[in-house]
Write a structure and sequence with these properties.
This protein is mostly helical. The protein is built from 1 helix and no strands.
């Protein structure tokens, strides 16, 4: 996705980067939860 930041994508990247940040954080949290559940078993 990062290589499409040129041309008409500038506005989308400027307003939509926080969405990817949230998705990344959620994915990291889910991974931590899964790992902890596996370790507790």
């Amino acid at each position: 996705m990062m290589n499409h930041a040129n041309g008409g994508m500038n506005g989308w990247m400027g307003g939509g980067m926080w969405i990817w940040a949230v998705i990344g954080i959620l994915a990291a949290v889910l991974l931590v939860i899964l790992i902890t559940k596996l370790l507790k078993k």
